[in-house]
Design goal:
Its main location: mitochondrion. It is found in: Mitochondrion inner membrane. It holds the Pfam family Mito_carr. Belongs to the mitochondrial carrier (TC 2.A.29) family. By secondary structure, the chain is mostly helical. It has 10 helices and 2 strands, in the order αββααααααααα. Strand 1 and strand 2 form a beta hairpin. Helix 3 packs antiparallel against helix 4. It is globular, with a radius of gyration of 24 Å. The N terminus and C terminus are likely disordered.
């Protein structure tokens, strides 16, 4: 039994910034994992339909690869199938005739089964879920520690400084992207050579042969150019919205806040997204899939200048509306489910905290809370 003198009997309320009820890294992982799964299940059908419409319009014919988004991260997929639609990896080439997005949803569901709306999802989740978990847990751990340090000499309940989510978001994304970049490159190489997971060493050997160890992070620069600023802007905006609401975030409020923050971050970073998409596809087609590789001559900065010279500022914001339509719901679903998971574990930790107290201390604290 706990000694009364060692009990922290300050009045308490269920606050995410109260270290007594703060969720553990394991609980953060569980919340992030569940959020990642739910996000991918809701968002993937939108991208599958988009890819099927592009394939119908012959937009994929000239390319060796395309970007596939499951709501968590972008994945490079190769277009090296036989094109007869019999291979399960060639789901994007199945014969079809759609008259728009809604018609595509209906026809795919009726003729191919509802599971076809999640075509190609499973292989991408092998990387996307761990990467998302690393990102969210890193962000939460950094944010709480920086906020504790910044507010250590200030009264309890002082709002966190806005530089805390900014630094935490940028650092967490930098860390997560750096960790997952070599794995995504290996996955792309395995797909292009039709290798199984038991033959991962073959893909690694091929990459090292032409690019060396540093080549495993090829393409990381354009990714960081987009994702690091996006993450910083997103978390500052979202955390500010939480402070405005006194940190009383319901599922609905988190959903709307995540959607708004995602839209703002997507708007600001769209030029980086245009460059990143161009560089990623070009790199995959010329340096990863092709053997021996044809190394790129253009730098990321030269690509930005080229797009600007040809199409002006408008060219750097190509695809802004479709990107916001894709990013906003993904951010909303992910952060709302993550916050819901955090709240669940915080309530659990609060109950455990109360259960460990002597009855007279618990009653005294409850009476104090009831009068505040």
């Amino acid at each position: 039994m706990l000694e009364t003198s060692s009990i922290d009997d300050r009045p308490f309320s269920l606050s995410p910034d109260d270290p007594r009820f703060r969720i553990t890294p394991t609980q953060q992982m569980a919340a992030a994992c569940s959020g990642a799964l739910i996000t991918s299940l809701f968002v993937t059908p939108l991208d599958v339909v988009k890819i099927r419409l592009q394939a119908q319009q012959k937009a994929l014919v000239a390319n060796k690869c395309f970007l596939y988004c499951n709501g968590l991260m972008d994945h490079m997929c190769t277009c090296l199938g036989n094109g007869n639609g019999t291979n399960s990896q060639d789901w994007y080439k199945r014969p079809s005739h759609f008259n728009g997005t809604l018609d595509a949803f209906i026809k795919i569901t009726k003729t191919e089964g509802v599971t076809s709306l999640w075509s190609g999802l499973s292989p991408t989740l092998v990387l996307a879920i761990p990467a998302t978990v690393v990102y969210f847990v890193s962000y939460e751990q950094l944010r709480t520690r920086l906020s504790d340090w910044a507010n250590s000499s200030k009264p309890v309940g002082t709002p966190q400084p806005m530089w805390s989510p900014l630094v935490s978001g940028c650092t967490a994304r930098l860390w997560a992207a750096t960790v997952v970049s070599p794995l995504e490159l290996i996955r792309t190489k395995m797909q292009s050579k039709r290798l199984s997971y038991f033959e991962v060493h073959e893909a690694l050997r091929s990459l090292l042969r032409y690019h060396g160890w540093t080549g495993l992070w090829k393409g990381l620069g354009p990714t960081l150019l987009r994702d690091v600023p996006f993450s910083g802007i997103y978390w500052v905006t979202y955390e500010k919205l939480k402070i405005i609401n006194n940190n009383k975030s319901s599922f609905g409020y988190s959903f709307l806040g995540g959607s708004f923050a995602g839209s703002v971050a997507a708007l600001v970073t769209t030029p980086f997204d245009v460059v990143k998409t161009y560089r990623q596809i070009e790199m995959a087609e010329k340096e990863i899939i092709t053997e021996p590789p044809k190394f790129l001559g253009q730098s990321t900065f030269s690509v930005i200048l080229s797009i600007y010279e040809k199409n002006g500022v408008q060219g750097l914001f190509t695809g802004l509306i479709p990107r916001i339509i894709k990013v906003a719901p993904a951010c909303a679903i992910m952060v709302a489910t993550f916050e819901y998971g955090k709240a669940f574990f915080q309530r659990h930790n609060l109950l455990e905290f109360q259960r460990d107290m002597p009855l007279h201390v618990r009653n005294n604290m409850n009476s104090v809370n009831g009068n505040t």
